[in-house]
Batch of 3 targets.
Target 1
Amino acid sequence: MKNEFENDLLSVEERKLGTKKIRPLFFAYTISAVLGMGMQMVMGIADGFFVGNGIGPVGLGAISIVYPFWIIAIALGTMIGVGSSTLAGIKLGQGKREEARAVVGQCFWYSNFFSIIVTVLILIFLEKILILFGAQGEILNTAMQYTKVFMLGFPFYVTGLQLFYLIRIDEKPGLGLLIQTVPAGIALIVEYLLIFELDAGITGSAIGAWIITLGSWYLLVLHFIFGKTVLKIKMKDMKLNLTNIKEMHKIGFAGFIIQVSPTVVTIVINNLIGIYGKESDFAVYGVMNAYILYILTSFTNSFGFGLLPIASYNYGAKQFARVKEVLVISIKYTICFLIICVAAIFIFADQILTFFIGPVPELVESTKSAMYLFIPLFPLGAMTLIASNYFQAVEKNGKAIINSLTRNIIFILPLLFILPRLLGMAGIWICQPLADFMSCIVAVYYLMKERNELQRK
């Protein structure tokens, strides 16, 4: 009876990922991801409002400092999630059902073990890390308060994000939407009460983040242990297969690099602000980086959720025409959507920034001036995300890593060490669009070559 059930589930996999028309399949995955992440984006936007209006510029400055911890959690969850979901998706495409299930279970336990170790190390050296990130004065104390609470949820965030990637390959996008929406809604209410009614300060923001991560983790674990899925997590999976773990790292490393590299940039920029700017510039960067760019990147990642399972499954099944089709569709719709988003941000800049910052006209104007320099070419830079996601999905890890490094390491770091010396704070902001443009050229080159190769297969 069990085998019949699993065969039925597998036939569903084959019918959808392997045979359904690419465009509606891509949109089904992307829209469910946008809606699911949409609630978390609402939570992120609300968090910006709560911190900016309930705590003030010091709170926004602290968010700018601690934001790398979010990125590190996302980077680890992405590495394990992309690696395990891609490996499992390819094995499903090859008909190796039990091997796919084992990959999911082993990577889940590995994610728990690894993220707990990282959490302990960060808490031990927390103050030194925050100073390295650029924290100073009152902002350092506020950042310490936030991080001590936030790190309690760090392992749950990493593992929960990993399972969210896996639920896409498990053909459960609707369940993924529910799992992201419910905890975020609860956190929204709790954070409002903590900051505005109970005067909990920056700790209220950290508790809100903790509720989201724990709630999503709990619901995802319930599904993969007790739900109707061929990708069940079992206790025997605690005995790790090092070959699977190594392959997972190999596939997911590019995703880790593309997520963690902004952390390097954030640390460098925060330290440069300490040299060339003033304390309010930390708040300017906090609004742009932790909220505006967070929203744009979340949308880009949602389109990546549409690309990854379809590309990996069909590549494993050697249906290369379908792989090429989903790649082209992903590029076209992701870039067009991001252009619309950036245009809307510029048109409604005053309203958006006042929402986050509150009635502080000088800070709103400073942030608007910086934002006009900082984000206009983000849609071009997003090509690196598309390229990296695609090459991870088809196990071309060298190309994925190259595209992961161009935008936030190879091009922007040299610019950050040159332009601020010539232009001051304006030089810091203008580095990002220059890096976006140059990295886009590299991504287009690799993607055009890949499209031609798929054409010949």
Target 2
Amino acid sequence: MSEFNRRKFLEGSASVAAAATLGTGATVFAPAVHAQTLALKPEKGAKLRVLRWSRFVQGDIDAYMLNVKKFTEKTGIEVRVDNEGWEDVRPKAAVAANTGGGPDIVLSTNDDANLYPEKLLDVTDVAEYLGKKYGGWYPAVHQYLRPDGKRWLGLGLGAAGSMIVYRDSMVKAAGFTSFPKDTAGFLALHKALKDKGTPGGYALGNATGDSLWTNWLMWSHGGQLVDKNNKVVIDSPETIKALEYGKELYATFIPGTLSWLDPNNNKAFLDGQISVTNNGISIYYATKTSTDPKVKELQSDIQHASFPIGPVGVPTESHLFFNQMIFKYTKYPQAAKEFLRFMMEREQFDAWLIGAGGYIAHPLAAYESCPIWTSDPKHTAYRDCVKNMRPTGHAGRLGYASAGAGADFIVANMVAEAISGSKTPKEAAERAQKRAERYYKV
């Protein structure tokens, strides 16, 4: 968190009474936090349509729809919810933005809001109300949804953490008493796992969530897509070092990861084909809810860990951020804002976090105290994902360029090309540089 502007974290958070142990996540909030009010007047006869990404854990959508039902019962506003895969939400939202028709509200990923900011309803009033009431938005949320430091393009929903998921028994069988905390140990573990016939595997296809490990690979060695001035700098000695390290790592992977999308590593892990990967909590969730004895018996063996720290010497976490946007063309802007406010209030939001089993990490500091993070010790690793994450456009300012470059999978493609040997690290970095420069035009 030290890399971010702490002032932004506390902005609009006058009710934070004490944060003596902010680094540990143990923040104390004053009772006055509950005195915040926001008067919205939904339009008469309002009906809303929501487009959101499809669930990876059933409890997410079940709890979400219960909250939708509560909203309708309270307000009389009918809400239709359409669920689509992550890869389908982005193009459908873009079509809606360009044609001026479609869903009123979209729940999407990363900085999609920056693809069409002029098409989105200003939700500053709701964002400031929620920030003041619930301890402040984490820094990455400001960066994604308030890049100009003024208008809020949407509201943060949270993030699916890209954490390490591993079989503890297999890591120990490979000679490691605990999961490595540095990149040297990380590589040594993967080599040992391959030698034992229990390899790891990480998605190298255009996977919206699970390819985010490639950001970690680049950042951990000091590489960046752009610098603080939004100058493209991905073709750098630091990136080359990351890709050379990646080649050694890739040599330990199970075959086929070049085509892996988001569901593939889940299936490979639960099938016993791999012993370590990166993922949200959905793999662990599946072991807790499955009726298949072979899957269920994995539950006690699964552990979670953060990605190791590389030569840069600091954590470089990359997680799948979720946003909530309202299109300007909606006939019911007040109703749409009231829906988002209602869904983010503690009574609903805690229930949703719990229902999703820890799959979504919260964007507001007060929700650190949600029982989901301590009800099962294996959930705790995911609690601070939004708090600690770097936005995908690091280290530049987010906007159309970062959103476009992210949607184009430039970093993921570069890593896949270089570590698989289809291009040399230098060739892959040069190609990524040219692709990124098309978005970050001088």
Target 3
Amino acid sequence: MPNPKPRYLTHNGLTLSLQEWARKVGISPETIRSRLDHQGYDVARALTTPVANKFAKRGSPPVPPPRPCPKMLKHTKSGQACARWKTGKKDNIRYFGPWGSKEAAGAYRAFQAEWVGAGSHLVNPSGGCMVGDLVAEYMGHVGRYYVKDGKPTSEQHSQRAAMRVLAALYKLLPVTEFKPRQLKACQQAMIEKGWARDTINRNVWRIRRCFSWGVAEELVPASIADALDHVPHLQAGRTTAPDPDPVMSVPASRVVAVLPHLDPNPERAAVLAAMIQFHELSGCRPGELCAMTADAIDTSETEWAYRVRDKNTHRQRKRKPLTRWFGPQSQEVLRPFLSNPGPGGRIWCFPPRYPNSEKSRRVPVSSARYSELIREACRAAGIEPWTPHQLRHNRATNVQRIYESDEAAAAAIGDTVEVTRAVYADPSEAVARRIARATG
């Protein structure tokens, strides 16, 4: 229900309504209101902080619903039954046989089944398909496939970036003329954009995936997709594409440095400080931390168990349930928050902005907001920014140092030994130095 009276805000000696400030600064009124009521911003910060790029409205329209199957028409010149439709800007036609015959009726029923199965992107077999048409149809598939809990996943943005390069270079090229040379040109275009080597390799894979999908939908000859598989990935040290520095654990001094700068509100700062301390002790992923609910934690044993729910339903059938175990130190941090969970049973929630208001409510801390607040605290403390995910590296590294075992570190963070050794645990020289001292 809208507010009965406009809300006025004063900034830099100017007093305007919230709606007028929204038009003046180019920030939506909902964002300004949320910043003031729920996120603890003061008026100056709410009106001057730019909206994060990841939350900006995208220019691409939503994926339209599937088109209805074209009707069967009578072709005047030939007297045959047919159907006409467009794919992009190309006209397509399919003939079914003499008008009014059983042959035409059966062929049209088969065409209807093809149309439903192919998602309304059938093309005329003799008409060919342009790369731009293939990209448009593939992105429709991406919009339907890469969805989690009814929301688009980050893979949609990655697919869009790869397809943007492909369409910019070869939108008007027939798919039958797209060869390994053209895929290498896309690869080179990504290098010139300054993208990292791993990012380029993943995006080249996405372009291959687009053409492989086109084979299954009879938009691309199989020989084209097979030929693209022979384009090699960029190798480290053999390309000008940069390799980012490996992610390491966060030094304890940098973790301590952000604590006084987490939030001006002491209650909100206390929640964030507890999250950081618990995160480093548990070694869970930021998404798992922020999604924790009180009912998912079993406190009946000496070590508390947290049953992690994998939102990827297609992986739930393949993976064993993941359980995080919390010892005495983690329990001490977590216990005060279990007695008063927030909306949906969420553990980590900010207190309401206005406790005495009828509309006051606690706000669950999302993983994106968690990362943003730590980044802002690093900036306020004047130190190099670090991310919450690096606290997972801290946990793996600490356990590996104590037990001198990659298996122990992998068990502590709930990942494979290979990934833990290659990604999470910092390199250790302790064992090598002790061997050298004793035998060298």
